[in-house]
Write a structure and sequence with these properties.
Elements: H1 9-19, H2 25-45, H3 59-67, H4 80-83, E1 86-89, E2 94-97, H5 107-113, H6 136-149
Helix pairs in contact: 2-6
InterPro entries: Phage_virion_morphogenesis
Pfam family, one: Phage_tail_S
Protein name: Phage virion morphogenesis protein
Length: 152
């Protein structure tokens, strides 16, 4: 008894295209910019990329911001945490960073994860959960982008 498998030419062609896909810097630029857009949406919507609403500002913080003429929006003071994202791409990777500091205090991490020591609640803005999983919509968009680059 023999088994003959046919009709795999399309699958073979797709696998070869994937294997030969030149992962170019521009692809990773696009992926990085997609992630930055998700981050900025979190600031605009005042909720995590996963949909959890951020904790409101305390009355003390609201008053301090009002006296200084700062934005009443959550996590908006100087605007650096919202706007100073850097995308650095290579041919096979992308790094997204924001190294904003205030007197040596890297406050992005404290706001992302919270800090009991500084009494800062977590207000996640990165599209990655605690287990390192991408937010599903971003993951799907990245997959669709990569698929669109595979031409047969």
């Amino acid at each position: 008894m023999s088994v003959k498998i046919s009709g795999l030419s399309d699958v073979t062609a797709r696998l070869e295209a994937l294997e030969n896909l030149p992962l170019k810097k521009s692809l990773f630029d696009d992926i990085g910019n997609m992630a930055v857009n998700e981050i900025k949406d979190a600031f605009i919507d005042e909720r995590s990329p996963f949909g959890e609403k951020w904790q409101e500002l305390s009355a003390k913080t609201k008053e301090r911001k009002k006296k200084k003429g700062k934005s009443s929006k959550i996590l908006r003071d100087s605007g650096a945490l919202f706007s100073k994202w850097e995308v650095r791409s290579a041919t096979n990777s992308v790094t997204i960073s924001n190294n904003t500091q205030n007197n040596g205090f890297a406050y992005g991490l404290s706001h992302q994860y919270g800090s009991k020591k500084q009494n800062i609640p977590a207000r996640p803005f990165l599209p990655v959960d605690k287990n390192g999983n991408l937010e599903k919509k971003l993951e799907a968009n990245i997959k669709n982008l990569i698929i669109s680059k595979i031409k047969i």
